[in-house]
Amino acid sequence: QGGDPGEVLLTGVMEISPDGHFAIMQRNTITVLLDVEKGSYVELPQQLQRAAFSKKRDVAYALTPDYRVVALDLATATELWSVAPFSDVSLLKVNDDDSSLVVVEGSTANVIDPEKGVVRASAELPTSASFGSFLPKSNRIAIAGHTSWNAHQPATPIALLDLEAGQVVSVDVPNCEAPL
Q1: Residues in CB range of 112: below 8 A, 6 or more apart
Q2: 167, 60, 59, 71: which is closest to 120 by C-alpha?
Q3: Is 146 within 8 Å of 177 (Cβ atoms)?
Q4: Environment class of 103 (CB within 10 Å of its CB; exposed 0-12, middle 13-18, buried 19+)
Q5: Which of 42, 49, 98, 121 is 20 to 30 A from 59, alpha carbon to alpha carbon?
């Protein structure tokens, strides 16, 4: 935990932007934004809790200590927008075409427009998120919940969330929690 996009930024973790031009690094109590091209860095005013990079723009989406989800312009280290509050975040992911930012708070999945910072849809999940993965050539994300044991058998809820409609179809699979 703490090394993949959108996971908790632990001390010593470094996230690299998809184009390799920027990095977000976590020190003990400070988050550093490195501009690899310029060979310079800036200490951000707040320690980021999670971060996920856009694959189309020089933007990172991050969770701040005051439970805001922000879009951070990587070239200027300034906030483009902010949505609040989001406590108990277990998933923060942006899809490949940069059209949807998914934030799971508790058992609620929120789909945010990454350009405007507006919550486009919200849906209830069976449990909080353990992992999530966007489905290729689809407008959906598969979100794995936490495994429970019923009659000595594991059951992991998988929620398929439509990113536009905000509708969820759920199924329990006989599997233990594992990344998708």
Answers
A1: 69, 83, 100, 101, 102, 103, 118, 119, 120
A2: 167
A3: yes
A4: buried
A5: 121
How much is the pTM? 0.88
Going across the sheet that includes 108-113, the strands are: 89-94, 101-105, 108-113, 118-124
- The answer to whether the CB of 60 falls within 8 A of the CB of 17 is yes
CA 127 to chain centroid, in Å, comes to: 17
Is the pLDDT at 8 greater than 80? The verdict is no
Residue 86 is predicted with a pLDDT of 87
Alpha carbons 30 and 75: distance in angstroms, whole number? 19
Q: What is the pLDDT of residues 144-165, one digit of tens each?
A: 998 888 888 888 999 999 999 9
Distance CA 164, CA 162 (A): 6
Which H helix or E strand runs over 108? strand 108-113
Q: In angstroms, what CA-CA distances link 9 with 43, 65, 76, 175? A: 15, 12, 21, 27
92 has which bridge partners?
A: 103
Q: What is the pLDDT of residues 120-136, one digit of tens each?
A: 999 999 999 999 999 99
| Length reported for the chain | 180
